[in-house]
Write a structure and sequence with these properties.
Helix content is about 45%, strand content about 15%. The protein has about 300 residues and is an alpha/beta fold. The chain folds into two domains: about 210 residues, no CATH class; about 70 residues, no CATH class. Helix 8 runs antiparallel to helix 9, helix 9 packs across helix 10 and helix 9 crosses helix 11. About 10% of the residues have low confidence.
Length: about 300
C-alpha cells in the first residue's frame, strides 16, 4: 500500500500539488515550487528517508524531502504520509506528531554542527487522510505549537508544523489542488473518467505515474480502506486479528509484485531494454526484487 502512494509522489506535478498546502508555497506555480526541491540526477524529486537516522533507528514516512523554503532559503524537512482513517483522531494526531519529532531528531544528527540548535532544520508534515468520515471530507487544517511569551519577549514556536488533508470524493472541488488529490486517490469515479479528468484538469497522465492503464493508482483508496479497517479491528481484537493481518499483507505483497512487474515490462518495452536494465533504473522494493523480476520475466515469456 505504502509503495503505491510513494510512486505517485515521484511525479513532480503531484508533489507540487501536495507542497502547495504548506503556507510558504500557497499560490505558487509548479515550476516555482519545484525549484525549492532537491532533485536526483534522474530529475525526480530526491527523497531522504534512507539518509536520516535517529537513536531509535531510521526516520520513515511514505516520503520525505529536503527543501529550500521560498524567500529565505531556509532548509526544511518535509515528510508526506498517506494514512487511512482509523476512527481515532487523537491516535492519528499523536502518531504524526511523533513522526515529526523523529524527523527533527534525525535532521539534528545529520546537519547540526557544534550543537548550534538555532540552525536546527525545521520539519513540516503533510498527512493525506483517505476514506475520511463525512464530517471531515475536504477539510484542511494546520497544527503547530504556538509561540510563548516570556517577560514580554515572544519566543519562537516549536519547529514542527503538521498539515492534515482529509480527502473527499473523486470529483469534489474541481480545479483545486485538493480536488486534484481527490481525483488521484479518492473513491467515487470510474477508471476511464478519472484518467480523463486528471489529464484534462491537471495535465497528469495516469499511465506515466504507475504502469499500464493506471491499474495501481485506481486501487490506492481501496488499499488504504483495507489498512484502516485492519488497524481499527486490531485495537479491540489484537489476538484474533493477527492471522488476518498476516493474510492481508501476503495478499497486498502479491498484488504489489504483479503491479511492479507490469510497470517494469512496460518500461523495458518502451525503452528497448532488458528486464534487468529496467529494474536497475526503476529500483523496485528490495525485499520483493527477486519475486518482481521472476514475475516480469514470466510476463515477457507469457504475455497476459
Amino acid at each position: 500500500m505504502d509503495q503505491l502512494y510513494k510512486l505517485t509522489l515521484e511525479d513532480p506535478r503531484v508533489l507540487a500539488m501536495h507542497l502547495r498546502f504548506l503556507r510558504e508555497f500557497e499560490g505558487m506555480a509548479d515550476g516555482d515550487v519545484l525549484k525549492c526541491v532537491y532533485l536526483a540526477p534522474t530529475g525526480k524529486p530526491s527523497k531522504i528517508n534512507a539518509e536520516l537516522y535517529s537513536p531509535n533507528g531510521p526516520a520513515h514516512a511514505d516520503s520525505a524531502f529536503r527543501l529550500r523554503m521560498p524567500g529565505d532559503g531556509q532548509e526544511t524537512i518535509v515528510f508526506i504520509e498517506g494514512q487511512g482513517w482509523i476512527g481515532n483522531w487523537k491516535r492519528l494526531y499523536n502518531r504524526m506528531f511523533y513522526y515529526g519529532l523523529r524527523f527533527l531528531d534525525a535532521g539534528k544528527r545529520a546537519n547540526l554542527i557544534d550543537n548550534k540548535y538555532e540552525d536546527l532544520p525545521e520539519c513540516r508534515g503533510i498527512i493525506v487522510v483517505f476514506n475520511s468520515p463525512a464530517k471531515l471530507r475536504n477539510v484542511v487544517f494546520e497544527s503547530e505549537m504556538a509561540s510563548a511569551v516570556c517577560d514580554g519577549i515572544s519566543q519562537p514556536s516549536v519547529p514542527i508544523r503538521l498539515t492534515f488533508l482529509f480527502l473527499g470524493m473523486a470529483g469534489d472541488l474541481p480545479g483545486t489542488d485538493l480536488g486534484g488529490l481527490n481525483l488521484l486517490y479518492a473513491k467515487g469515479i470510474g477508471r476511464e473518467e478519472r484518467a480523463k479528468r486528471l489529464w484534462e484538469d491537471y495535465k497528469i497522465r495516469v499511465n506515466a505515474l504507475i504502469g499500464k492503464e493506471g491499474d495501481v493508482i485506481m486501487d490506492i483508496a481501496a488499499s488504504f480502506r483495507y489498512d484502516g479497517k485492519m488497524e481499527g479491528i486490531a485495537i479491540g481484537r489484537e489476538e484474533g486479528i493477527k492471522e488476518g493481518i498476516k493474510e492481508g499483507r501476503n495478499e497486498m505483497a502479491e498484488y504489489m509484485i504483479g503491479a511492479f512487474a507490469k510497470q517494469i515490462v512496460n518500461y523495458a518495452k518502451n525503452h528497448d531494454m532488458t528486464v534487468e536494465e529496467a529494474i536497475a533504473i526503476l529500483c523496485p522494493p528490495e525485499e520483493y526484487s527477486d519475486s518482481i523480476e521472476a514475475k516480469a520475466l514470466g510476463l515477457i515469456s507469457n504475455p497476459e
